Amino acid sequence: MAREPVDRDLLDEQLAYYRARAPEYDEWFLRTGRYDRGVQATRDWFAEVAEVERALDRFAPRGQVLELAAGTGWWTARLARYAGALTAVDASPETIERNRVRMKAMNLALPTYVQADLFAWQPVVAYDAVFFGFWLSHVPEEHFAAFWQLVRNALAPGGRVFFVDSRRDPQSTAHDHVLDDGDVQWRRLNDGRRFRVVKRFYDPLELEETLRRLGWQAVVRTTARYFLIGEAS
Q1: Helix or strand or coil: residue 15?
Q2: How does pLDDT run across 65-108, given as a tens digit for each residue?
Q3: Residue 175's pLDDT is what?
Q4: How far apart are CA 221 and CA 164, in angstroms?
Q5: Distances (CA, A) of 216 to 9, 81, 109, 220, 231
Q6: Is the CB of residue 98 less than 8 Å from the CB of residue 22?
Q7: Any residues with CB less than 8 A from the CB of 10 and at least 6 apart, and which?
Q8: Residue 94 belongs to what H/E stretch?
């Protein structure tokens, strides 16, 4: 049975934020609008994005691949280059639709889309690789072990995990966002609406050790400023 979230209201608010943010989510990745920190910062950002992409290329997620929190499809499109079959799970129908449009525009085979709450969903198929981008930081501490159990349940024997997430850098977020010290942050949309989200930042060595205690072998590293990259089995 799925574990009931300690603060369902917070998780519902987090989902509401990402549903409402779907039309402007790509501004963050593309460093436009409120996320534009100048020419050099943009160059640095995309140099580090390329570093993550090269790491994913080396990982080469082949066979049956599962993407959790697939979002608008930036990573879905890259996973499609390797996967024999791809399943993309996200709780937001708005982001799934944008993901679908992106894949069609790139003339890529559409994944099997699943709209589901990742705090309740359980896989029914075994996968050779599981990927999640910028999701682990949104998992509350109380649900960390349960999430990794979900990942374990999703993997076929010999299966592998690749993930990427944010480092704590004030320039990675919008001009009008403040990075607080706690695990809950306020996020603002372009129209001024504000939402609470879970946002946890990890030290690579501490994350490796936490995963080791859960029975995983993991290697976690960082890019120069913005990203954390992990592989686990």
Answers
A1: helix
A2: 999 999 999 999 999 999 999 999 999 999 999 999 999 999 99
A3: 82
A4: 10
A5: 31, 27, 32, 12, 10
A6: yes
A7: 140, 184, 196, 198
A8: helix 93-105
